[in-house]
Amino acid sequence: MTAPTLQEIASCVSGYDPNALPVAQAQEFIARLVPRIEAVEMLALRSALGRVLARDVISAINVPAHDNSAMDGYALRGSDLRPDAQTVLHAVGTGFAGQRFDGAVQAGECVRIMTGAVMPTGLDTVVPQEFIHADGPRIMIPANLVRRGDNRRLAGEDLGQGEAALGMGRILSPADLGLLASLGQAEVPVRRRLRVAFFSTGDELRSIGEPLDAGCVYDSNRYTLWGMLQRLGVEGLDFGVVRDEPAALEAAFRAAARAADAVITSGGVSVGEADHTKQVMAKLGDVLFWRIAMRPGRPMAIGRIGGTGGNGDGAILFGLPGNPVAVMVTFYAFVRDALLAMSGATPKPLPMLRAASTLAIRKKPGRTEYQRGIVSRAAPGNSVTPAQAGAHTSREQWQVAITGAQGSGILRSMSQANGLVVLHHQQGDVAAGELVDVLPFDGLV
Ligand code: AMP
Ligand code: MG
User: Fold this and answer.
1) Which domain, by its residues, includes 265?
2) How far apart are CA 215 and CA 213, in angstroms?
3) 224 lines ligand 1 (CB under 6 A)
4) What spacing in Å lies between the alpha carbon of 99 and ligand 2's midpoint?
5) Is the pTM of this model over 0.85?
6) Pick from 191, 214, 245: which residue ends a domain?
7) Residue 323 CA to ligand 2 centre (angstroms)
């Protein structure tokens, strides 16, 4: 199957206008562009935490394997319980976890049983230890405290044999590792880790450890990118700062595309750029230069470089703007989901919070704005006044304060923030107290 051309993808995206592309259309385009890596490796269970499951896992056994007791107490036949009256049974033995009681149990008899012990044949109910009175082997059970089937776990109630335990595309969580262990599975098939190369462009950039010459800044984008890639669980390959010289850029793009499934660059994609980054991108790949209807992060390059991308032949290119905040915002808005899709993960929408804005926010309809905010719990009775009286506003629990300066170069306000206020494409000015969507950083990256 040959990958669709960028033109073919563009023709499938309604509202496609490379010079004023709405965020949703850019996301749709990217989702159609990126291939999924196919290579699979088997990993020991513990090494698979955070990795993408490559196949459905079907349970080969019942979990639990047998009916067993959920309590310490006495196992009995539900049919022996007397309605509305005390039941007296005769204890004939004990069943321990891992060591079942094998004897026959007649009507009117019961078996002392421990949590997790297999239910003796014919018994279907457990009365907890603390409910009964014992007089030697005579066990007295007060009326109406247990019903037939109580405190018994059924074989296969956690997972039935042949049932799908976990679906392909899952990012394996601690609970998933435990579930796989409960199936007795020592190894698990996961997709190979995605390789993502990244470098910074710009003659004004210096790397940590170099003297900061006049007019220069330290390169911070390779650090935020490295951090975000780490949190995504992909392999980051740092190609350093690349000077604004065609030969150096060409060598860097070629090497990065060879080494990785995706290449992320920052800088050099603005409209007014005098440098060579865009020319070299266009020369080495099939690349589009977008102006996205968003703030921050308007310019962006997207496409394939050094081949059709993915699975060894070339790479998908994300040419992000240079401004440090724009790099992070465009990463969250476009690159994160794309890399997860390339990794084989089933996409999951990010959880959004609704919070009352403490201040009025100016917003122009026709572009998506991402503002840095500090989300906190609104103290009861002390929250900002809701703009509209409505069912969902009066008891609102969260509020968000926009951090001061929103310039796209001001990384400090990103560091202070604990979430991004997302002001959607069509949204206009926000009044103080109005509810807005917030993307919390916790759990994001
Ligand atoms: P550009 O997109 O190349 O026009 O860059 C926009 C702004 O971001 C300029 O002020 C650059 O100096 C700054 N910038 C670009 N790349 C980096 C970087 N890697 N680290 C810090 N600042 C950068
Ligand atoms: Mg630049």
Assistant:
1) 6-39+193-342
2) 6
3) no
4) 71
5) yes
6) 191
7) 9
